[in-house]
Amino acid sequence: MPSNHNRDDKPWDTEDIDKWKVSSPHLSQHPLAPPATHLCVQIDTFTPTDNPAGAFAEESSFAVLFPKYREVYLKQAWPLITRALDKHHISCTLDLIEGCMTVKTTRKTYDPAAILNARDVIKLLSRSVPAPQAVKILEDGVAADIIKIRNLVRNKERFVKRRQRILGPNGSTLKALELLTQCYILVQGNTVSAMGSYKGLKEVRRVVEDCMANIHPIYHIKELMIKRELMKDPELADENWERFLPHFKKRTLSKRRKPLKVTDKSKKTYTPFPPPQEKSKVDLQIESGEYFLGKQAKERAVKEKREEKQRAKQAEKKSKREKDFVPPQEDPPTTKEKKKRKRDDAGKVEQQKKRRRSELDA
Predict the structure, then answer these.
(1) Integer Cα distance of 306 and 284 in angstroms
(2) Which of 17-26, 93-102, 161-170, 173-182 has the lowest mean pLDDT?
(3) What is the domain range of residue 75?
């Protein structure tokens, strides 16, 4: 039988109370009122009255380093960041010498989550997110996620190609992901920075990590587009959507793994005896007589072997160098060429004799 214990009417449990709304702790009408449920859909903004304890017991601070190329931009945008953090009573400092941004709580800070949001602001700024966009993280319902992608792919060239897939041609893939997930996404260096709702950030992380694992983002974009259309139909709210979603199979040319070293599988004559045992290093030294040599003799033998190898290498290199200077072998002249040369020589001699006669007559 079910127990009727604690079934009495509660003085604070009236019909005008919204049980799904988060209420502040000081608004409880009765000292025995239960704490607010964590299953909430409406969240009120945190005000100073929601923190009756007052100032924090200790100061909390976070520091983030930023690259050299962000120095000029941060110097220009720092007044905007300071004004945004001052609204939540968070102090911030920019150290250009150390290349560091620091945020701290003050005596006026009342929201415990404000310092965590401020930490996310300086993290996003260090990853090249524009200041007006980074400041939006201070709003309720906006979260940030910085995905490290460099350690997911070893090869640098492969990493660059897969990172480019996230952007797509003229940034079209990135724009489609932003529209479908309702998140701001920025690809910078070895990280992907994202801002938006928790559900959207979860989708962005899945797409980015799968892209680094060689799964193209277009498959996830198709899936997200189908889900977006299915959400509009109230009849499919309680049904499984697996039958509507596409299932892409990985195409491989051959699933058979080829061994690195292919052994000789030719048929050999069968023998019942095992193969002879291979000789060890010591056995080989005993056969060559090296084992019985002294320490100095061994060193001398090793040195002689080394020098012999060096001489052989030097001779080989010398022959290679001298190849360029060896004259090519000419073919011996044929009988026809010899007769032609003799005729030419005879003709030249006759011409010379004629010249001398003409000179003497003159």
Answers:
(1) 19
(2) 17-26
(3) 58-140
pLDDT computed for residue 212 by the predictor: 93
In a domain, 253, yes or no: no
The pLDDT assigned to 26 comes to 38
Q: Across residues 196-205, what is the average pLDDT?
A: 92
Q: How many domains does the chain have?
A: 2
Asked if residue 264 is part of any domain, the answer here is no
Domain boundary among 248, 273, 299: 248
169 and 244 part of one domain: yes
- 57-61, 92-96, 271-275: least confident range: 271-275
pLDDT at 30 over 50: no
pTM of the predicted model as reported, rounded to 2 decimal places: 0.58
**101 strand-pairing partners:** 64, 94
Query: What confidence tier does 56 reach under pLDDT thresholds 50, 70, 90?
Result: confident
The domain that holds 218 is classified in CATH as 3.30.1370.10
